[in-house]
């Protein structure tokens, strides 16, 4: 139509535009009513021509001024004067028909139906018909909605009256257009599509429908008259975007449904009409990939949200290639945007400017509500801001206030939280009622089930509402109410100042994490409330520790210590922060908070006299720090202090914690008890208790698994290790899972179960990376190096072991260093670099002299012996000395597993020396002391070696006999 209007002034065939009793002749600049010229100013006539050229569209004030005044700068008030003159000229006292409507804040639209006829050679003939109600063209490709369209078609056939409801931008109009095209053949072309977004006067609705159907109807006539005119027609009427005239649409739809049995009705609205006969179809989001590791591009493209994103990016960027590296990021973007089609399209449209990763980064702050979409899209779909504003402007004052204030909540929330945050003085039922209305309007989403319902704001809606909250000057007061509520909530968690509450109890607070972090940010800001921040930091520290959120724990404990101290409930918060900061720093950085761990513990120990459980916790935390840094001499003081508390502790948890700490000390002292002698206090308890940031039963089972292997019970070790892993995974506590994975991975490596070792090491690396556990990441790298070397990939194993040891040195995590050092030495030896191997193993023995004997000292001595025996100029005498020391150390530690390895090495040394008669005697004795684990790696090697010796002995015996016979 726009092109035809332009041609009229360019020498092309003249034409007339007819609507009702009016005829517009653009080439002659005449407006006629029933053949009589209407007096109309030149500018007002230009306005009419421009609006008809864009009939059915909303023309903004700026564009209209540009088209009419063509570059002349005029005030918009001038436009309003000519619009008023035009409306007056088109008015009719006998009719209530409106031809030009105002869309507040957006512009004007010509909404009447009309026809275009040629005036060439004085012969009038229709060349184009532009009836109101024509179905818009469908999209070239609609993503992820084909099944939905067919389902809605079936519903329309069965029920006749269907409303597609859902969040703005979800694709309701797109689906409705597709349904309308599907029914065109069945209704012989009588499919009427009414875009109601341009209608501001609801009384125009029946007349608009009448004009679209092609029947004569005056607005003053009863609605039943219109129904009577179309009663016998077979129609599908689509009312699109009717939220702002919902009452009028409800009345018309109910009447059509009840009195015109051949008429089918399809409505799109963000909320149901709640009309008689209405069948509601709630249009959900596009399918998004769930959070999962190892997502590939092929897997991601099975989800419609990703398909839409990738297709829209490819349309803008011909060179775009969707790879496996992109898949997790694109999946995250789609989830963050709630699978909303319009939001995904707008985000994809900006990839050319920011890149896929850049869009993901922008979503961490705020998605731009003003990114533009397709130029030919409806104005309300040009930007997210326009889309959401369309709904927001229709809210009542109370609904708008509630929506604004809910924007401070991240993630899910309950009605209790919402009521407290919206207003501590407001009527609770008023807030709840408003939330119900917002749910109906698809501005608040529901999650959960009928027994436990939660709510959340879509990401884009929250961004919009947050802007409105700031604009209304309500952000600080609303966030302060939120902070007060969170402090109250978390102080219930931290009963009696307990550092790490039951994990089952902690789990119930996970959903508040986003809100806690966001509110802490505000409380410590310039406009925040420092007193509330201090209380919230102390209350949240146990939660952060319990969930292994160590970065957050260090950050807020540190800021609270720097800000000041107060004492709620008689518990000094400074002690809470010191303890939280020390433990979180140790786990995240591999070193204690203070320079001198023992002095720091003594200080807290003295300050907390009378609080035995807190004293014990601090001793346990200090033991961890000393254990990690391999300060075994200082470590012995912790059990002595724990023993001094023994008579004061009556709580079962405290007793169990103390015994497990003493058990750890026994491990460090290498007095390995047998599995039957290991303390079992608390193993059968039904509670999920944590000591020193670990579940102590998982800690115990993991330690017992390693001890069982060392004592010569490899089958029991594997069984206990799997029990530890199962319990740790059930708890979903990252620090505890990592502890179990480290301990149990070594058991799998020792027994030669490469498949299980690979699974546990991969899981360790994944969890450590996700939670920023730097020491655990280093250990995972080293364990992977051992596995690669053990499977024959020597160079890759050596590379990872080198990297591991560098990281462990930086992180001051030395307790496992000797294990990686000796394995690195074996790797160098296997590749023929004996000098490097000897240098490394000598360094390990020097470390032992400095820090004291470690659990794997026998193994280090054995490897040194093997190196001296295998190098090009072997020193068998020195090798045997090292093996003797290794055997004595293993016997001292009751480590039968190390004895077996040492005896195996001694047998091979004897064979190299030609001492066949001595070879295998010790190995046979040690092997005979085992009662299980015969299929594990070390036992198989020992058995094969003994069988080989037996065959050699038999062969020699036969040779002697044969010589005697001769």
Characterise the protein shown here.
The protein is an alpha/beta fold and about 950 residues long. It has five domains: about 1-130, Winged helix-like DNA-binding domain superfamily/Winged helix DNA-binding domain (Arc Repressor Mutant, subunit A), CATH 1.10.10; about 145-280, 3-Layer(aba) Sandwich (Rossmann fold), CATH 3.40.50; about 295-385; about 410-420 and about 430-435 and about 445-665, Alpha Horseshoe (Serine Threonine Protein Phosphatase 5, Tetratricopeptide repeat), CATH 1.25.40; about 670-770, Serine Threonine Protein Phosphatase 5, Tetratricopeptide repeat, CATH 1.25.40. Helices cover about 60% and strands about 10% of the residues. The chain contains 43 helices and 17 strands. A six-stranded antiparallel beta sheet has the order 4-3-2-1-7-8, with no helix packed on it. A five-stranded parallel beta sheet has the order 10-11-12-9-13, with helices on both faces. Strand 2 and strand 3 form a beta hairpin. Helix 34 (about 755-770) runs antiparallel to helix 35 and helix 41 (about 895-915) packs antiparallel against helix 42. The termini are far apart.
